[in-house]
Records
---
Amino acid sequence: MNASCREELLQKIEEATAMVQRRIRIEPEVAIICGSGLSQILPTEDGETITWNEIPHFPLSTVAGHRGDFWAGEINGRKILLQRGRVHCYEGFTIDEVSFSVRMFALLGIKTLIITNAAGAINSDFAVGELVLITDHINFLGDNPLRGENFDRLGPRFPDMSDAYSSRLRTLAKEVASSTKITLKEGVYIAVLGPSYETPAEIRAFRTLGADLVGMSTVPEVITAVHAGIEVLGISCATNMAAGIDPQARLSHKEVIKVTKRKEQELGKLITSILQRLPS
Ligand code: HPA
């Protein structure tokens, strides 16, 4: 992508952001991205809902179980922008489209991103349905949302990723999990393109690389957030053991959604309690 295309993209993000700004009554400080089947994790009564098809230039998702809207309002006294659903590279979207909303968050002045997803468990210490704090990631997508001319207004050319999943937010999440008696494991997330699930041989290879979880999202959004100076907390719901971990098991999207639905309430409780104690 040449420099003028990059300029054009930034202009589109600005137009989309301006529309959202006109519609909402708060200045959001925290954004929360709800992954597959996790759109109902938080209570959303008083606030504004903006469906993605109302927003100029916004990429529109095609996957069942992915609602496409933003909700802006207050939860536990914090000003929140909730993103219900996301778009993925496997749907054919470019990595810039996948990261579009996070760049909007940056322009909106959002300082913290809580990102959730459904993931396959590579680590056999994890059980189906467990929540896992993402400690770090491996980008196996073969692309990066920062490729191309840098958006100097948003962040540096070569951002440091040493603490991408903020250690202070992870400490807070672990304290909250322990005080609310929610099991929260920890692990490294590897992002693959999909949409086919992995082969058992791939999962063995990823385990050797140091991955505990595998999924098809999150990494583009996190790189984009870190670039823009947004602090990130990532939580996965382990919806299935990854391919080959249980040789008899077979993977299906239906099962993934079923498990996330079962865990929605617990994840919601964890996030609301984290919001209560989040430093401002
Ligand atoms: N692999 C990739 N993505 C996933 C999986 C998986 O096993 N489960 C949920 N999302």
Note: The chain has one domain: 3-277.
---
Amino acid sequence: MERIDLKALEKPELELQLSENGFQRFRAAQILDWLKKGAKTASDFKNLPAELKNFIETRCYISVAIIEKKQISRYDNTVKYLFSFSDGECVESVVMRYRHGLSVCVSTQVGCRMGCAFCATGQGGLSRNLTASEILAQIEAAQEDLGERISNVVLMGMGEPLDNFDNVVRFIRLVTSEQSLNIGARHITLSTCGLVPRIYELADLKLQINLAVSLHAPNDLIRAQTMPVARAYSMDSLLRVCGDYFERTGRRVTFEYAMISGVNDSDNCARELGEKLSPLHCHVNLIPVNSVEGTGYDKSNIKRQQSFVKILTAHGVAATVRRTLGSDIDASCGQLRRKHINEGGK
Ligand code: SAH
Ligand code: SF4
């Protein structure tokens, strides 16, 4: 029989599980309380009857993320973790320190099947989806290790969140709830490579989270050179759903644009992008691409970056070059795990 993933349940679901197994519903609140305090094994649930502890031990499990590696940047205090789960699979999470507090970048899948050419995660394909509790466990483990509260969450680590839709939505409901970390939806950002039908579904849920869309090109032709997903969904349809997302949720959409030398960083690219984005209520994050071994892509130089910002601004599109944090610790998604695999890990 499949074990019950305790940390993935919302309170009413846990109550139901308990009553179906002959326990009183009010025990749910106690269990959630102990989980919030960091309970990891049945013996940690101090005030529960032995029978219920036994049920937890034999019929349930508690997701934990175990620190396999930890790197701290010398430049900016960015901390990068390689976490493993019960089956030995590993993912990366990064904690960044901003003036307004700590922000964590979590993974949603082990690997990714979207195959973007510049991305270290995309090179290895998808191993498996993460459960909602495993996504949550990354934040809990980082918080416990650092001894500080994390106030912002970005779903920008390994994996395509909307390719793991149900678990990711469950995670968002959990992490924003009082039973768990109680982080406001407006402090959560989901980044997607642009799975158009899934963005409509997400908008339907009206979750109040921020949406970031990885664009990385001004048109389908250039986009398809590095992002296979561009062949499935046109940029027109993608920009349409972004407009829709804003109208329905009131949340501004951010576009991610990794600047790759000679591929997507010309003035013409900037003009075309500016024209397409000017009707939208959006912000563009320009990120000099992080060179990943074997991809052959280099970051655009400062002059190109500045010219791009200038042209976008002239079109009325807000754009900034994003500070790259943790550049000395393989902080770009997927790089640390790839190294770990090359060294014989999973
Ligand atoms: N799959 C989602 C979220 C994870 S990737 C997505 O693609 O949006 C998080 C961000 O890192 C995306 O914007 C992605 O395009 C970007 N990224 C991946 N590899 C990169 C690299 N080598 N340099 C700069 N950005 C990169
Ligand atoms: Fe997957 Fe995002 Fe990497 Fe593309 S950039 S391969 S969607 S993780």
Note: Residues 112, 114-116, 119, 121-122, 159-160, 193, 214 surround iron/sulfur cluster (ligand 2) (CB under 6 Å).
